[in-house]
Amino acid sequence: MKRELFYKKAFNQHFLKSNLNYNNLYNLKQINQCKLCILHKSKKANYILANTKTKIFIITKKQLAAKEILFLEKYLEKVNIKKEEIFISPITKCDFSNDKENIIKCLPYTINELIYFDIKKVLLLDKDLLEYFNLSKKNFCCKNILFLNGKIIEVITSFSIEYLQKNPNKIEIFEQSLKLLMEKE
After folding, report:
1. Which pLDDT score, from 0 to 100, does residue 14 have?
2. Where are the beta strands (DSSP E) in 22-137?
3. pTM, rounded to two decimals
4. Which DSSP symbol is given to 49?
5. What CATH number did the domain enclosing 134 receive?
6. In what helix (H) or strand (E) does residue 152 lie, and over which residues does it extend?
7. Which residue range forms the structural domain that includes residue 95?
8. I want to staple 39 with a disulfide (CB 3.0 to 4.6 A). Which of 70, 72, 94, 150 is the partner?
9. Could you report the per-residue pLDDT of 156-176, keeping only the tens digit for each?
């Protein structure tokens, strides 16, 4: 493990030993009964667990609309990522609030998802999500290594789909981020 981290650091990958760990109090199977914040009152849909074959976990700041998912799938196909290999998870599980307090309350569920499904690669679709994983904004659009609960997870951050749709000149950078996901470990 240490040798692998040394090599990753040698090739200019950012490494972070995280203090984020699995928390038994945030059982994914009981997520639909969560009442940690006021958002549970406005919950519109039940949370669905990821497929155990998920290879790439995509974390968003909000629930993606159907058009945004189609936009994302189009670019994933360009770099040979099949939609069966991904799981899109908003960082808040009830109503999709960008309120920092609600995100912090819901973050342990997201951490548990990464550990429970043995995720190796994560794409954060918004630079604001970096802070919740203890990553600096200077690590935007590059490969980061997150050491989480004894596991190594590669984290790549890129623009939100909403931002990309408003700023098509950033799509090339987004495509480069997706290519980083496909590099061998």
Report:
1. 44
2. 56-60, 86-90, 121-125
3. 0.78
4. P
5. 3.40.470.10
6. strand 151-158
7. 2-40+47-182
8. 94
9. 989 999 999 999 999 999 999
